[in-house]
Design goal:
alpha/beta
Length: about 140
Amino acid sequence: MLEQILCIDDDPITLMLCKKVISKSSFSHEVITAQNGEEALHHFNTLKYTNDKSKKKPELIFLDLNMPIMGGWEFLDHFTSPDYNTFNSVPVIVLSSTIDPEDLAKAKKYPIIIDFLSKPITIPMLEYLKKKISL
């Protein structure tokens, strides 16, 4: 079981569902959320500049692509930059409502993306991911 994961999505219902499904499947002890890429980067900036050892970095990120303020692709561009090199080893799973072939191709350009799944998240998906990441 993972200690903490981060779900980045602008839809509060999706975030609530994510928390419930992850909790039911014993996939992670804690689920934190961000409503867009900018909020997620702010979270990582806070981790970077804090001396609080109780603040831990997420071990996995579920990322939506289409969000206002800062979408998933823009988040990934920032997150994979040298500014975030202490965090950009955290694996990302794109969780999108559309499976556009262009998005699938673009995802292959980011080594930290380990999978591209269709919303909503389900217990069978998490079982598949447990095997994939050896939990």
